[in-house]
Amino acid sequence: MFIKCTEQEAYIFDQVARAARELGVDAYIIGGFVRDKIIDRESKDVDIVCLGDGIELANKVAGYFKPVPKVSFFKNFGTAHIKVDDMDIEFVGARKESYRSHSRKPEVEPGTLEDDQNRRDFTINALAVSLNKSNFGELIDPFEGYRAIEEKIIRTPLDPDRTFSDDPLRMMRAIRFASQLQFTIDEVTWKGIKKNKERIKIVSQERITDELNKILLSAKPSAGLDFLFQSGILAIIFPEMVALAGAEYIDGMGHKDNFYHTLQVVDNIAVYTDDLWLRWAALLHDIGKPPTKRFEEGHGWTFHGHEVVGGRMVPKIFSKLKLPLDNKMRFVRKLVELHLRPISLTKENITDSAIRRLLFDAGDDIDTLMLLCKADITSKNKQKVKRYLDNFEMVKYRLEEVETSDKIRNWQPPVSGEMIMEVFGIPPCRHVGDIKNAIKDAILDGEIENSYESAYAYMLRVAATLNLHPVK
Ligand code: CTP
User: Fold this and answer.
1) DSSP 448
2) Residue that terminates a domain, selected from 148, 176, 209
3) Same domain, 131 and 41
4) Which atom of ligand 1 is closest in space to residue 177's alpha carbon?
5) What is the Å distance from ligand 1's center to 125 Cα?
6) pLDDT tops 90 at residue 274
7) For the chain, first and last CA: distance in Å?
8) Contact, 84 vs 126, CB < 8 A?
9) Model-level pTM greater than 0.85?
10) For position 104, what pLDDT does the model report?
11) What pLDDT is attached to residue 365?
12) In a mutational test of the pocket of ligand 1, which residue from 48, 121, 158 has the highest number of ligand atoms less than 8 Å from its CB?
């Protein structure tokens, strides 16, 4: 075999070869699995293409295993799937495709292996390995895909205009593969992406977001994000990000380019975490800067309140991108809203009260928030970076100190809203929230002790100023 297989894979391929021989059809391993094997990247998805009926081949192969795996198939597409151990194996008849301009759905007819390789997106994805007797294990590589892997280059097998206009999602796939594999994009292919960018509009939002997530999850997401920006695709699919780009100058005073700053922050966080939502928080942390940008005479550029405005933008962006609107979104929003808090603490005298408030507001997300803050330190000035990092370490130390003594992280004020309503015989109303907040503030500010008795006594005092008295 040209590709190096595990014992389990070799066994499976032998069974596919045997079934194909018995049915009298040619069969090949094709696409992503071959690519990943050459790169030495783990893959559990195998595509088998045959010059015949893919469903029939799948049924025959399934019959060789005990217990017989379930064959799921789509008659309309002529594809079938079986799962053997942890391997997903997909069977399809070789085909020729032609596309109409308004849709990603191709007209399909049976074709040769060459037709099938022609219709594929990139040369690195068009590699096939024969499972036939005459040339078992041989690599069939009509477009020099192997060389493209060695040269780390993404290139379309045919004229990129055709490949991308056939299926515009491939423009995002090109950028995603470049980002995941740390490849470059061939010049002609790149021109094709720029030329066809508008066609991304016919692709469903789910597919676009899926690729965006894969880019964000790559080792160095800035590569893919910058390709999206430079190609003009980002302006179409995510204009709020593009609004961050560029640095404006007035009276010789400028601000940093917030787009490239953001990309740096995303790369920084990617070193520490594979968590998609924390990476989203890094991507969106400054998203409120463009709408809050002002130039203040004699002072320079300001972005007052950008964390609040940015926080408000999160649900809108998630909704538009069809990302989940559940606790993942709320987590991202919370981090965007709080991202300045730890750093702002370093500018003043850090009081215990400020530390307690931060612990209370961040709760269990405090460590994640601190990670984001650290990733946010991107100045080119080494001394500045050192100063920020020193301050940052100090805040971290104080957080640990205060948490150890006060246990604020998962703390709930000792008097609840229900209790307030019961004691004063009042229905849910503004007073309940006001009293509750007053108690919380008094404890966090260290004015009263963190105990039920002190909180109760304080509640009576605050309520009296509102002319409320206990009913019993
Ligand atoms: N393919 C294509 N055009 C697309 C999607 C897929 O030509 N828009 C082809 C490629 O040859 C690809 C194969 O179908 O290798 C399998 O597609 P898929 O499973 O989506 O991609 P992989 O290349 O396996 O990579 P990944 O699983 O990371 O998406």
Assistant:
1) S
2) 148
3) yes
4) 28
5) 7
6) yes
7) 86
8) no
9) yes
10) 65
11) 95
12) 121
Q: At what angle do helices 205-216 and 169-181 cross, to 10 degrees?
A: 10
Per-residue pLDDT band at 101 (split at 50, 70, 90): low
Checking if the pLDDT of 404 tops 80, the result is: yes
Give the mean pLDDT of 386-398.
87
Structural domain boundaries enclosing 114 = 7-148
Same-domain pairing of 25 and 60: yes
272 C-alpha to ligand 1 centroid (Å): 29
Please tell me the distance from the alpha carbon of residue 259 to that of residue 247, in angstroms, as a whole number: 9
- Tell me how far apart the alpha carbons of residues 458 and 448 are, in angstroms, rounded to a whole number: 8
143 plus 159 within the same structural domain? no
H or E, element range at 250: strand 249-250
Counting every residue written for the chain, the total comes to: 472
The pair of three-digit structure tokens given for residue 240, joined into one six-digit string: 């709020």
Atom of ligand 1 nearest to the CA of 121: 7
Residue 128 Cα, ligand 1 centroid: separation in angstroms?
13
Residue with tokens 């024969």: 130
Q: How far is the CA of 212 from the centre of ligand 1 (A)?
A: 16
Residues 200 and 224 in one domain: yes
Mean pLDDT, the chain, whole residue set: 93
The residue from 148, 178, 203 where one domain ends is: 148
Residue 114 sits in the same domain as residue 16: yes
Measured in angstroms, how far is the CA atom of residue 176 from the centroid of ligand 1? 12
Distance CA 196, CA 131 (A): 37
CATH of the domain at 129: 3.30.460.10
Q: Is there an atom of ligand 1 within 6 Å of 211 CB?
A: no
